[in-house]
Amino acid sequence: MTRTTMPRASNVTAVPDVPDALVDQQQIFPYLTYADAPAAIDWLCRVFGFELASSYPVADGRIAHAALCHEGLYMMLSSEMDQLGNCAPDGEARATSRIHIHVRDIEAHYQRALLEGATIVQGLQDHFWGLRSYHALDPEGYRWSFCQRVREVAREEVERQLLTW
Questions:
Q1: What gap in Å lies between CA 17 and CA 30, rounded to an integer?
Q2: According to the CATH classification, is domain 1-15+26-88 in 3.30.720.120?
Q3: CATH fold of 91-165, please?
Q4: pTM value surpassing 0.90
């Protein structure tokens, strides 16, 4: 495989191909499969502020593997490929999982997603556990939640609130 010629952010370090090189870094990576990975990469970068770290296309334009970075944290993705045994979501409306990311400025992040036309499934909300968050769907149906801690809440208070939730 060769690296794609898609533009790559100059300040983002590519995720090494050898997992052992990550011993002192992030060790759990969301890995998503998209029917149209090149479009997903463009959308995730434009709407949610990710930066492309690396990408390995195959001859027909699909992506065998890509790494994206958001504020120093990485996720990986690929196109649907029989050789990898993966497939994209089937379009069911039920959320069976989501990618949850803490951001520095939830208001700005939310406004960017709105301006770019993201499908917001839960608008900005303050939660009793101290986070402000929103949820959005990407074009292929993955649910993303973004949040920012807005206040510290004692564990005992969260536990008390959960009893009546």
A1: 16
A2: yes
A3: 3.30.720
A4: no
